[in-house]
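call fold(seq) -> tokens
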Amino acid sequence: MRVGSNPQKSERKITLTTHHRIVVVVYIPNEEGFYEHSFDVFKTCLNSLVSTINSQAAITVVNNGSHEKVSDFLNLYLKEKKIDTLISHNTNIGKIDALIGAARGSREKYITLTDADILFTTGWQEKVEEVFFSFSNVGSVSPIPVKGLLFGTSTVLKNILLRKIKFKSIAIPENFEAYNKYLESINWDLETNIDHKWNIIESNDCKANIGSGHQVLTVDRDILFKTVPTNPSLTLVGGTSENDYVDFSIDKANKLRLSTYNNYAYHMGNKLENWMIDLQNNNNKADTNIKNKLNTKSIDLHHNWFFNKQFGLQKKIVKKLFNIFYKK
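ret:
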């Protein structure tokens, strides 16, 4: 039997105090072999977020079946309010399903989807948001710029070909060292030419790089409900899951996929190095100043053979035209 009236019914609607949500999925089943140093890497990742976001952002961590030590650590951070939300699974439900599920449950306009081995540096949030504010129709922005026209950039290239966006190819020497750290982390050949050209677009005095990887990127929340597949991926990690649920979805939404002009994050891999610790120490020194700153039907890309075939052909045509006009 109910006694009295639920007081929440007379309360006002909830007012959001944040506009940016960071979602991190972590799976560390033990501290052996591949995972021997993963806990240290993850702690550095999370601490870098805690020390670099401003008051307009909040952190969600999805514990995807990690061992007890990780769980205890996350419960402590939740209690200390270093993270805002903790979602815990007893078993690993798969990286993408854990990531997209948590992201869709978020209410902020901007949602950063990140791996658990990314080291963020001071200013990343402000620089990512600056790109969203400066360019129209942005779908995603990564704090790690990459060279080449990677992962779902056909919408950007179409806008360049139609002269809707200012484009130029320029050298950015200050990105050289950070870019090589990224290449090394994924076991790719290093860049040897410090003056190699980057693909840059500009709007409202803000410059951005074309394209990005998918280890970390901030998306417009609408994409999660418009072009991301509705069926579960049912994939532990890898395969085509990140392409289907992240990469293709941004381009299918006809939005721009960009990254910041300079580098503001690093992919650490599964072993902590001294330079990573040094960068996090710099984050901690700047922490005090940072804190005071400030429905359409979904399309199932995962099982839509016709779309994937048509989409792939479209990308090839656009990139071919871009390379012809701009001599890439």
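The CA atoms of residues 130 and 206 lie 8 Å apart.
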